[in-house]
Amino acid sequence: MLNKNVEKAINDQIVAELYSAYMYLSMSAYFESENLDGFGRWMQAQALEELYHAMKFYNYVNERGGRVILGAVEQPESSWDSPIAVFQATYDHEVKVTGLIHNLVDIARKENDKATESFLTWYVDEQVEEEDAADRILGKLKMIKDAPGALFMMNNELGQRTPTWPAAAGEEA
User: Fold this and answer.
1) Whole-angstrom distance, CA of residue 11 vs CA of residue 7
2) Looking at the predicted structure, is the pLDDT value of residue 170 above 80?
3) 85, 41 Cβ separation under 8 angstroms
4) How many CB atoms lie within 10 A of CB 33?
5) Which of 19, 31, 45, 110 lies 20 to 30 Å from 91, alpha-carbon distance?
């Protein structure tokens, strides 16, 4: 049976993951409106990945005999000044999510919930990848600044990411 403090914290995290998906969809819509469809496609793939993360938590709560209680998802921002601003917001958001995951680990440890602590290891590792991906793109965008040709090339590069559901239920992404 899932400890009630852990259950509440994971339910809060499910909402945070759903917000992340919603935010990335909003960023995708922004990029699409700016004719940067490759950037938009990258953000759509990111949104699906965040939904997958939410569903992993959802399934875990159910597997442990807990109850999923979904809270309201806040409306995300809808416009930015530039692609740099979008990826700065992306990086900052992923750093925040990393803090949320680390807090979940702390709660699991406090409650002596070894199963949840083990489950969360995947998310700890995933956040290293999430921060790195956002930081690398942000770094490239800062390097190219306002060079239209370089932005066009980066749009094509990011458009190579395919928005698909990462894996079947219960499988690793």
Assistant:
1) 6
2) no
3) no
4) 11
5) 110
Give the model's confidence band at 70: pLDDT under 50 very low, under 70 low, under 90 confident, else very high.
very high
Return the ∠ at Cα 36 (arms to 35 and 37), rounded to 5°: 95
* CA gap 164, 139 in Å, rounded: 26
Q: How far apart are CA 65 and CA 115, in angstroms?
A: 13
**C-alpha atoms less than 13 angstroms from C-alpha of 94 in its C-beta half-sphere:** 25
Instruction: Spell out the alpha helix ranges (H) of 34-170.
Output: 37-63, 83-110, 114-144, 148-158
Mean of pLDDT values over 74-102: 98
In the predicted structure, residue 1 carries a pLDDT above the cut 60: yes
Q: How far is CA 23 from CA 35, 90, 119, 135, in A?
A: 19, 9, 25, 17
| Longest distance between any two alpha carbons in the chain, whole Å | 56
Residue whose pair of structure tokens reads 């852990």 in the numeric block: 6
Give the span between the Cα atoms of 101 and 17, in whole angstroms: 11
pTM: 0.93
pLDDT, tens digit, for every residue of 45-63? 999 999 999 999 999 999 9
On whether the CB atoms of residues 80 and 86 are closer than 8 A, the answer is: yes
